[in-house]
Write a structure and sequence with these properties.
Blueprint: E1 10-12, E2 15-17, E3 21-23, H1 39-50, E4 55-62, H2 80-95, E5 99-105, E6 121-122, E7 146-147, H3 150-170, E8 175-179, H4 185-190, H5 205-208, H6 210-223, E9 229-234, H7 248-260, E10 266-270, H8 286-293, E11 299-302, H9 308-316, E12 321-324, H10 326-330, H11 334-340
Helix pairs in contact: 1-2, 3-6, 7-8
């Protein structure tokens, strides 16, 4: 497999990566109650770099001490103590020859474990569909969020920029990924049925993307041009798995054209199966549509790509990087195993239950 495109070097912005293999962000709720990353997290992230992944993207990290925290025992980037704990993880990953990006996140209406404030906030006072997730210690329906005011929205943009600066300047991360996917706050603004606003933050799909675009702009302005910045987007959500953009390829054209001009170093697309058609009336996957409408943008694909043939198929459709979630959890050394022609271990759902924290069996054994 050494001649495979999976094992060729490629840049993200100014950063050159040794292969195309990335650990996708995965929520593991293993920090302290006050959001400090743990020694267990350090061993976990370091092990992926030891296993040959060129890049690790962290689980979502909350960005303020207001309404951004999503889950209990989630790590934050809001204080010197939190930054110092992340720096230890960054240095461990670097020690194994890997790179690591911080994924920064605001929960919005999907918060189910905020240590700072009661209630939730969102673009509109619409109760999220679905139920809170028990494996992240949630129970019952989501509450109805309070609609955010203009000044609060501007404050959230500033908090994303603040967290990005802490990630780079204090914790030493190699880059920053903005979490705009999976139903969290930026995606709530982006989604038609959760955003009923008629101001500049709502309206058609271009208007609903405004918060993500302004967040990208603020993060870029704060950390400069030399640090890679990306955004993760999706159609499906943790609480609405099969959601699709209403106008199909026309919406994809709008979204990817706007993102191509937003100053990003990469676009991270996640679907359940990344090679499948994005919409019923088109054979093109979301990756292929992104490549069609954003031909110069670096694209990272995530979604059931632990099979090498599927990964290569998605690369042939336009992806530059392959991000693995379940495949990486089952095989912290997926790149080394594939490169050497060794068998891969199947994913065991028990890793994520009953609580999706990092288990002892996932860590290197003495």
């Amino acid at each position: 497999m050494k001649a495979s495109p999976l094992f060729s070097s490629y840049p993200i912005g100014t950063l050159s990566l040794r292969n195309r293999l990335v650990v996708a962000p995965m929520t593991r709720v293993t920090a302290s109650v006050d959001g400090v990353a743990s020694e267990r997290m350090k061993a976990y992230y370091e092990d992926f770099a030891r296993g040959g992944f060129a890049l690790v993207i962290t689980e979502g990290i909350y960005i303020d001490t207001a309404w951004s925290q999503t889950y209990a025992y989630q790590a934050g980037l809001t204080s010197a103590r939190q930054s110092a704990a992340w720096r230890e993880i960054v240095e461990a990953v670097h020690g194994q020859g890997g790179h690591i990006f911080a994924q920064i996140q605001h929960a919005g209406a999907l918060s189910q474990g905020n240590n700072f404030e009661e209630g939730t906030v969102g673009p509109s006072a619409i109760r999220p569909v679905g139920k809170q997730m028990s494996f992240y210690r949630g129970e019952g329906e989501y509450p109805v969020p309070r609609e955010l005011a203009e000044a609060e929205i501007l404050g959230i943009i500033a908090s994303f920029a603040d967290a990005a600066a802490r990630a780079v300047e204090e914790a030493g991360f190699d880059g920053v990924e903005i979490h705009g996917a999976n139903g969290y706050l930026l995606d709530q603004f982006f989604t038609d049925y959760t955003n009923l606003r008629t101001d500049r933050w709502g309206g058609d799909i271009a208007g609903r993307l405004t918060l993500s675009l302004e967040t990208i702009k603020a993060v870029r302005a704060r950390i400069g041009q030399s640090v890679p910045v990306g955004i993760r987007i999706s159609q499906g959500k943790v609480n609405d798995f099969f959601h699709k953009w209403a106008n199909g390829e026309e919406d994809a054209r709008t979204v990817f054209t706007l993102l191509a001009n937003a100053g990003l170093d990469y676009l991270h697309l996640t679907e359940y199966e990344a090679w499948q058609p994005a919409f019923a009336d088109s054979p093109l996957s979301l990756v292929a549509l992104a490549r069609k409408y954003a031909p110069e943008l670096t694209i990272m694909a995530n979604g059931s790509l632990q099979d090498t043939e599927k990964a290569l198929e998605v690369m042939n459709c336009g992806a530059n990087f392959i991000a693995l979630g379940r495949g990486a959890l089952a095989n912290h050394d997926w790149p080394l195993r594939v490169e050497r022609g060794q068998a891969l271990q199947p994913f065991d759902n028990a890793i994520l239950g009953p609580i999706a924290n990092i288990k002892e069996c996932e860590l290197p054994q003495p």
